[in-house]
């Protein structure tokens, strides 16, 4: 699942993860952030609807990462001349930067399960003291050899607890209709 894999998905318009707007669970969390200069990263951002919402709410320090060149080109057009958004064509695991919040929306489910500990370590590395991962994870098994990769809190907790305090990892009450009952909302604070 390298750059070519993801770019091909974009070229073939195989973007089933794209719901067409920001997830309600994430926008509700964003609405509670007071400091509009909070450094926010959205990895594997796709069409970055959450970034659009952040801009509408007055946020000024947003970084978007995607590995697919086509996705990044779309974002550069979408956010032309917006100085509050930094758009990077990059592999998340090679990224250098420091953030207060990482918004998680389908990125974790795109990473093969054998790399989940690496994901947690990288998140810990790029988050500032008291930084957080906030968003949604699947509470569902897909049993596919390709993304999305599912799981459950019973699998996630032991992986995340090594580097994060679990503030919340509970059923997501405001999931989109097709995902109701199959997502958990997470708020994980860096130890």
Report on the structure:
This protein has helices spanning 3-11, 24-30, 49-56, 69-78, 116-126, 153-160, and strands at 40-43, 62-66, 85-89, 99-105, 127-138, 164-171, 183-190. By secondary structure, it is α/β, with parallel strands linked by helices. A seven-stranded mixed beta sheet has the order 3-2-1-4-5-7-6, sandwiched between helices. Helix 5 links the parallel strand 4 (99-105) and strand 5 (127-138). The longest helix is centred in the middle third of the chain and has 11 residues, at 116-126. The mean pLDDT is 92.
Q: What is the structural class?
A: alpha/beta
Instruction: Provide the residue-averaged pLDDT.
Output: 92
Largest sheet: 7 strands, mixed
- DSSP helix fraction: 25-40%
Poorly predicted regions:
none
Shape: globular
Share of residues in strands: 25-35%
């Amino acid at each position: 699942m390298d750059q070519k894999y993801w770019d091909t998905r974009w070229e073939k318009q195989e973007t089933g993860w794209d719901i067409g707007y920001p997830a309600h669970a994430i926008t509700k969390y964003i609405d509670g952030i007071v400091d509009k200069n909070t450094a926010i990263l959205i990895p594997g951002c796709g069409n970055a609807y959450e970034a659009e919402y952040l801009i509408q709410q007055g946020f000024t320090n947003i970084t978007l990462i995607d590995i697919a060149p086509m996705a990044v080109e779309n974002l550069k057009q979408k956010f032309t001349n917006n100085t509050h958004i930094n758009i990077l064509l990059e592999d998340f695991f090679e990224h250098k930067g420091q953030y207060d919040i990482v918004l998680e929306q389908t990125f974790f489910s795109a990473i093969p399960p054998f790399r989940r500990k690496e994901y947690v370590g990288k998140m810990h590395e790029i988050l500032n003291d008291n930084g957080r991962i906030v968003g949604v994870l699947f509470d569902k098994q897909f049993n596919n050899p390709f993304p999305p990769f599912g799981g459950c809190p019973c699998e996630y907790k032991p992986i995340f607890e090594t580097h994060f305090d679990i503030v919340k990892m509970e059923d997501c009450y405001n999931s989109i209709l097709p995902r109701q009952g199959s997502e958990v909302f997470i708020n994980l604070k860096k130890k």
